[in-house]
Amino acid sequence: MSQSIVGASTPQVTAREKVMGRAQYAGDIKLAGMLHAKVLRSPHPHARIVGIDTSAAKALAGVRLVVTGCDTPTRLWGPHRKEQRILAAGVVRHVGEEVAAVVAVSEEIARDALDLIRVEYEQLPALLSPEAALADGAPEIHAGTRNIGHEMHIERGDVDAGFAAAAAVYEATYDMHSQYPGYLEPMASVATQDGNGRLTVYASTQSVFLARSRMAEALDRPASTIRVVQATTGGGFGAKIVEENNSLICAFLATKLDRPVRLVNNRLEDFQGARASVPAKVWLRMGLSADGMIVAKDVRITAECGAFSGLAGDVMHVSAMRSDNMHRVTNVRSHAVLAYTNNPPRGAFRGFGGQQMQFPLNCHLTVLAGMIGMDPIEVHKRNAIGRGETSVHGWQIGSTGMQECLEMTRQAIGWDAKRNAPRGTGTRRRGVGIAAAMHVSGNRTLGNWDGSTILLKLNEDGRVMLQTSECDMGQGANTMLSQICAQEMGIPLSHVTVMVPDTDTSPFCLGSLASRVTIISGNAVLRAAREAKQKVLALAAEKFGVEMASLSFADGRISVPGQPDKSAMLAEIARLHIFRHGGEGIHVRATYDAPTVMHDASYYGNIAPAYSFAAQAVEVEVDTCTGRVTVIDSFVADDCGKAINPLAVHGQTHGATVQAIGWTLYEHLRYEDGRLQNGNFADYTMATADALPMLRTDLVESNDPNGPFGAKGASETAILPGAAAIANAVHHAIGVRIHSLPITPEKVLAALRERHETEKETAHA
Amino acid sequence: MSQSIVGASTPQVTAREKVMGRAQYAGDIKLAGMLHAKVLRSPHPHARIVGIDTSAAKALAGVRLVVTGCDTPTRLWGPHRKEQRILAAGVVRHVGEEVAAVVAVSEEIARDALDLIRVEYEQLPALLSPEAALADGAPEIHAGTRNIGHEMHIERGDVDAGFAAAAAVYEATYDMHSQYPGYLEPMASVATQDGNGRLTVYASTQSVFLARSRMAEALDRPASTIRVVQATTGGGFGAKIVEENNSLICAFLATKLDRPVRLVNNRLEDFQGARASVPAKVWLRMGLSADGMIVAKDVRITAECGAFSGLAGDVMHVSAMRSDNMHRVTNVRSHAVLAYTNNPPRGAFRGFGGQQMQFPLNCHLTVLAGMIGMDPIEVHKRNAIGRGETSVHGWQIGSTGMQECLEMTRQAIGWDAKRNAPRGTGTRRRGVGIAAAMHVSGNRTLGNWDGSTILLKLNEDGRVMLQTSECDMGQGANTMLSQICAQEMGIPLSHVTVMVPDTDTSPFCLGSLASRVTIISGNAVLRAAREAKQKVLALAAEKFGVEMASLSFADGRISVPGQPDKSAMLAEIARLHIFRHGGEGIHVRATYDAPTVMHDASYYGNIAPAYSFAAQAVEVEVDTCTGRVTVIDSFVADDCGKAINPLAVHGQTHGATVQAIGWTLYEHLRYEDGRLQNGNFADYTMATADALPMLRTDLVESNDPNGPFGAKGASETAILPGAAAIANAVHHAIGVRIHSLPITPEKVLAALRERHETEKETAHA
């Protein structure tokens, strides 16, 4: 077969219905008799619920149900720690926590009814920072936790000896804030319970099976009584993996009413209800030898999960050790503590903790490179782990394009010409910065399984139906799976249909997270397509009375070269596979579980079948009058193994780049006394087109041996280097280093003033 | 395992939603933006469409679309002969044929708009009987057919020699009318085309895959672009297998509008649009030896398919030869002709042509038994084919309970006491009659495949999801499959969920026809459950470090007897099957294709894996003043191999018995010039409770070697003997034999008058 389908830039197979406005997002779904829900949230970061009076709300015309925490199942749920109820009962632990829900004949009436609910709170002391929460004698947000949600120590090699041998040592503390996922589609669900008591939930989700497990737990009913169907999903970015409450509340309300219920977050509700990324303070000390080798690294992380731990411990785990694996380091030490606070809960986010260490690490690396008089790209390249090597934590690197990414980046940004001297005139100063990063493609640590099962059905018209539970949230999973299938089956892309994930009928999969879908589910599709093709060829060989090896299969036709009478369309063989003695439809199941190794108690293992790499260079212009930083050029080199769909990889890389720029310069969740002040897109300023340069990306195809057609996870890596590249470029431009994100004009001006004062003092001294 | 689930009388697993009124029949489905369709039908049995003016209809406020035959695809469809379009184009061939369709915002407006469509017809000569259609020089309804839809000849042995050796020979012609299927739910569909151009049709159907094939053909688009989902279905009785136009029209309209469209037949429309059973005239000559053996049988059948042939040829095929297989006959001859007429098309119906021969055969057998002075039960028993024997047409009888059925019937009705003399006094005369019949359990002849595939998924809570495309139309398929699965897996019935047939996700199956589901799909479930259990046991053995053989599996728990620490719930093993290295969900596919043999060109073969038998005795009271015949007692013995769910078998047997009584005495489609005169339940008098005796049934469990737990098709056989049993009883009661159905008071009085005249003449002579 030609490689014309895999590797071709292909519009998304889901595009047509989206551009026509006909895709059914959860909020678009209309079921007969459907009611509308709204949720009342806590205005206090920490308070005891003394009493709730719902009588006026219940009396409002059009209201069908009002529930509070006391009505919800008492079983606690959580991805790890079981600490949440569907609605708060007895105590609220953060502003925005769900306290009551109303169902009414319209969204407007439901919203009006919220105003009629009287909740009497007794405020409790609020712990609004990790420092406060971890202070001796602080009250416990969850009893018995000492306000520690998770804690880990990792140490390998001899860190102290490493530092002793270092030519340069630098230490600093970095402060990284929380980022709202900012997807186009806020959380939304429609739930309905049928006459047989089975609950169906249409959800905006990254994983229907994780959603089902969570609902089974939170609703305290068997998983088999619940069906989760993925609605068209407008972005997830980690926040729709498993930590959202929207679908739980919606599902619960439907079970109480036996009527379909719709619950759609408006943007403010989504800012309040969705889990933003995990903020972290990182103290990093790192040493470089005179020849640029990283000889020691010591890290202390204080991450904050807010009121509930969710997946934040896993995120912190990644911050604590993932970046170590991109370099040939041997002496590393991490101590990481996750603090409960009375801020809103935090959780999974694109990059999954990677950026919380890549920002410190890449800033450090540039500083240290400067200290030994070496180009930071050279430092990265000297330390970069190679193909076939095993990292300090046991990761086996089957492929890496890190060297190529760095080299490509260097060329693209004009590094050598620009790096020696900052450019610009007057108050507009320009500088360049680079950073590199790595990411996983899959992750065994979710339950010692990182598999994906595909069902492939060859219809009687020779076309293929694929069933998976890996969710397309817009990132292009369905297109990628279709391409692999069409390529392997030798049929047009349009002859493959990927069905909607549905826990009733789809095979068990973990879902779209950890950049796992391309390599894991892609391999499963490859296996399924091969098995289906084998069945087709075996039957054709029988029909034609020839050996399978003598068959040719191309463009949907099976033939015996040179024997024109021995030829059949795929559809004909598909029908014959059924309509014969002992026949059956061609219906293939294939599973790929990554050939990885679960980490041991010391976190040593090989948790992903492949690892992706990226490098980014930016050029910034800093206005020293206003402090404004503008990214005027950005180039990302993304090592995705093989771009199944280059168009999609570029698109995802662009998105990740923008999200990194937003985190670094613009986006900032502002709280006062635990209350979000800017839960809207006017005040929470995500980067829009006018704030961005023409984004440039290119791909490195390192051809991973475990990857389908060599492919591994694409583009999630691209969110990781941005912040450090910008901070490094700012430093290059104006000579000040900002350790705290976001890099606001105020911080830039403050740093410039501070440097000016220092210089004056130095001059006077 | 105990036999506590299979064999237990179990309420239908679909009962709860039905009794709560929450089951979603197609007509109940409401989709957002849904429009409503109505269909204009031909008032003429045969006419050329000169012109159609739809302008006024289109101009009516609320009308969204008006289409006529010219708008529909030109490709012709049909189960065998391709002779229909979705709407008639150019010519109409029967009253009720679909000529135009309107879609509007309400059903009422759509109906109003029909009145505004002006169709100019030029009437053509109508052929309203097979005699007229088959007459020399008759115009052809379909060009090149000589008005013959199908014709077959079968001859085995030496029929003429058989007659020569006969002690008694009787010949007569029987006239059998068409019966409306009379299900609770008329045809109904909802269709919608999504933004990706895929069409979904929610249909009231017996076979989603046959429906999809038919739609692909009629709509002239690839099958993979169509999804057919079975809505809750309120009875099928054969009419919802594949011949209905409702879903085709609805689907077509949805593709034109890109809006959901609902088309629900009202009862009159269903009388006009649904295919009723195939009427037939049967000339039968049969000879008995002095010892009661059937030595020769000669049959000539003229069946009528009406305007389109559909499945009527298959029905006639059954009439022509199926009944031969219940006896040890060797000399048989059939010549059967299917005539096109300008009456409405006829097709599949419960019993599928069996009753059109069992009525003549069983009447004949009673007459001939009388001629040689033998009890007809004795004649049946002497001739009855035995277990292990091969019938004249090659059918291999793996099990038969015919002898037991006859004996049980004899006892139950009090045959020996009642048969010698009719009872009753004055004008109320009572008589008894019996008949016996056989039916297939499955049928390979639909495409040399009679298989069924089951997907079984074991969820993480240890519960099972089953996917099949065999449709439950109320007959209890889902309950039966659940029972077999629960029994074999050793789990409670409530832990099995059978999902809705859906061509996108369900495995390919033929559907619910030919009494095939219990034996075919039941076996597939049995295989799937065994395979799933094997997977569970293999993993448990590995986990416990023991041999599989030492494991015990009962009540959802796997354990090692005597080692209480080695025990796990099914759910735990199901989870472990995923969450381990190389794991995957337990997801099993199993197919059962019956071990049968396709018949050859002479119709010799073994087409079903099992054959079911039944016998019925009735007692009637005939009012010689009014001619009214009342069934005052009915007993049916049904050989179903093994009753998986006795409650359901009894229920289905009752239903079949009532339908047979209705056909024999009450139901009568009345036409004038090809126009139905009584398309409603006031004038088309199906038997209601006050017209029926207390129905009695009992089961014979002949334990078929191919059957799951010995089961084979139940209860369809029970529709076959009723007409003859009643006719025989009428003869017994009043000495006249009615050869023409229905046995109306008029016919009875006419026959009594005729006999009286004959007696008078004889007395005078």
What's the CATH architecture of the largest domain in chain A?
Answer: 2-Layer Sandwich
Q: Mean of the pLDDT scores of chain A?
A: 96
Roughly how many Å is the radius of gyration of chain A? 27 Å
Continuous helix count of chain A: 19
Main sheet specs of chain A: 7 strands, mixed
Please identify the top-level CATH class of the largest domain in chain A: Alpha Beta
Q: How much of the residues of chain A is beta strand, in percent?
A: 25-35%
Parts with pLDDT < 50 across at least 5 consecutive residues of chain A: none
What is CATH's topology name of the largest domain in chain A?
A: Aldehyde Oxidoreductase, domain 4
Count every beta strand of chain A, where a strand is a DSSP E run of 2 or more residues: 31
Estimate nothing, just give the exact number of structural domains of chain A: 3
Characterization of the model:
Two copies of one chain form a homodimer. The first copy, chain A, is an alpha+beta fold and 765 residues long. Chain A is globular and about 100 Å long. In chain A, helix 15 packs across helix 16 (570-578). Chains A and B meet through helix 1, strand 20, strand 21 and strand 26 of A and helix 1, strand 20, strand 21 and strand 26 of B.
In short:
Two copies of one chain form a homodimer. With 765 residues, chain A is of the alpha+beta class. Helices cover 28% and strands 26% of the residues of chain A.
Task: List the main descriptive attributes of the protein structure presented here.
homodimer; seven-stranded mixed beta sheet; 765 residues; alpha+beta; Aldehyde Oxidoreductase, domain 4; Aldehyde Oxidoreductase, domain 3
